[in-house]
Amino acid sequence: MKIDTDFHSHVSRSSARAMVSEAKEQGLRVLGLSEHVFQMRELRPLLAHMPLEGPEMALVDYIEAVQEAGRALRFDVRLGLEIDFIPDKIEAIRELLQGYPWDFLIGSVHEIDGKLLENEEGWGEAAEAEQAWHRYMELLRQAVCSGFFSVVSHPVRLFVANPHLPATIDEELELLAAEAARRDVALEVNGFDVATYPQVVRRLVRACALQGAPVSVGSDAHYPSSLANSHEASERLLREAGIQRVRIWRGMAPEEYRI
Ligand SMILES: [Zn+2]
Ligand SMILES: [Zn+2]
Fold first, then answer.
1. Ligand 2 geometric centre to CA of 36 (Å)
2. What residues flank ion ligand 2 with Cβ within 5 A?
3. Where are the domains positioned within the chain?
4. What architecture is the 5-258 domain classified under in CATH?
5. 24-53 tens-digit pLDDT
6. Distance from residue 24's CA to the centre of ligand 1 (Å)
7. What value does the mean pLDDT take over residues 225-235?
8. CA–CA distance, 5 with 32 (Å, rounded to integer)
9. pLDDT over 80 at 1, yes or no
10. Which of 58, 85, 55, 30 is nearest to 248 (CA)?
């Protein structure tokens, strides 16, 4: 069996209908839609610093659009959200998201102590840049331990703007994976990361295999044409590490299938 699910995708630049229609076209079995929490009107006051990627939407409208797309196209769609992990805001965010029928929640570290991963001034010279990696890994571990998320996404994304991996990166990834295994939180093999720096994702996957951490696979598609992006390469990385199970969720309960 091959990877036939995608549990990280966005609707803001197209629509839930367009994404589901493409998933069906591509022969996927299940699609997890996970719009950014900062696109949601109720959350904007807390996350006003995050640039919008499309029109703001109310939570109920997002949820209705996702559910309607599944019904209309007779497709297995799961309702998710990609949530910024910001330590001093996470409780307020959690409160605003209670009581909705989420299937899965993605935790994402998009910023380190107020500085976005992709920022204009960069991460400085080696010593300073390596320090940022240590802090990044610490925040990822906190996200795993928060008890809020089904999965922590793109855990090597800092590499996009900071190539100064510390010498201890493999140990740090193993520490993260060990925590994820203990808490039964998945770590994500992310399509953008796989397409852009597969050699770093390989180290993440190896850490997950060594520590027995659950693994999810998501393209992070912002357009229908990017759905399942990098799935073949992701599958090769998983097989190479001996990982045979992919995690997905329904009603916040984990499910797994074999590849
Ligand atoms: Zn993200
Ligand atoms: Zn995303």
1. 7
2. 82, 220
3. 5-258
4. Alpha-Beta Barrel (3.20)
5. 999 999 999 999 999 999 999 999 999 999
6. 24
7. 97
8. 8
9. no
10. 30
